[in-house]
Every structure is written in C-alpha cells, then in structure tokens.
C-alpha cells in the first residue's frame, strides 16, 4: 500500500529550527515530485515546497523562501523539510504529498505532523 508518514513536528520557539521528514512506501519514489503542504486551524491547506525526482529542482511558497529547504534521499525514500527562522505564522499541521493513488484517492497524503511555533 501507498504510505506517507511524516515525523519531526513539535513545539519550537520563534526563531528556532525544526526538521520534518516524510517516509514514503508503496510506489516508485525516485522520479516523482514530492511536496510539503500545511494547514492551520480555520485555514485552507497551502503549498509549502516541492522537489523533483530527477534534478532535484525545488519550488517554494513565497512565505517560506529563504527559511525552508526541501530535500530528498531517494535511497531511503524520504523527503525532508528543514525549517529555520520559524515564526508564529508557520504554526500548522504539515503534510507530505505524492502524486499517486492512495486507496482510491489522488493524490496521496500523509497523516500530518504538528508544528507549533511559540512567541
């Protein structure tokens, strides 16, 4: 089965750093674009960052450019999100996304990991 499992979330003070990881299984990981999204309470789920499978090209939301870095390890089937200079607005549940079917739904989403940035 397709499975995406996020980890690394937690509580951090503003200005601090956190590293999220997403472990992928059940599909060919190497050549697909992997993405991170986030959703704060009462808000729409929003794009954070993505990375291509071949050249490792990245794309970031304007709100996180210069602070977040997405990376992947195709040997371990993982995608990571290094988050630096965190601010309160970064508080959200962070989700890993893959462009594959997952139990009849598309795309596949992880269960999410909570990131809370305190003042």
Task: Describe, in short, the structure shown.
The protein has 119 residues and is an all-beta fold.
3D structure, described in words:
This protein has 119 residues and is mainly beta. Helices cover 0% and strands 50% of the residues. It contains no helices and eleven strands. It has strands at residues 3-7, 10-13, 18-25, 34-39, 46-51, 58-60, 68-73, 78-83, 92-98, 108-109, 113-118. The strands form two sheets. Strands 2, 4, 5, 6, 9, 10 and 11 form a seven-stranded mixed sheet that branches. The protein has a four-stranded antiparallel sheet with strand order 1-3-8-7, with no helix packed on it. A hairpin with a 4-residue loop joins strand 7 (68-73) and strand 8.
Fill in the keyword field for this structure.
119 residues, mainly beta, seven-stranded mixed β-sheet, four-stranded antiparallel β-sheet, globular
Topology at a glance:
Elements: E1 3-7, E2 10-13, E3 18-25, E4 34-39, E5 46-51, E6 58-60, E7 68-73, E8 78-83, E9 92-98, E10 108-109, E11 113-118
Parallel strand pairs: 2-11
Antiparallel strand pairs: 1-3, 3-8, 4-5, 4-9, 5-6, 7-8, 9-10, 9-11
Overall mean pLDDT stands at: 96
The unreliable regions are: none
Please report the distance between the alpha carbons of the first and last residues.
Answer: 40 Å
Radius of gyration: 14 Å
Q: Tell how many strands the DSSP assignment holds.
A: 11
Structural class: mainly beta
Helix content: under 10%
Biggest sheet details: 7 strands, mixed
Q: Determine the strand fraction and express it as a percent band.
A: over 45%
- Specify the overall morphology: globular
The helix/strand series, from N terminus to C terminus, equals EEEEEEEEEEE
SS element count, helices: 0
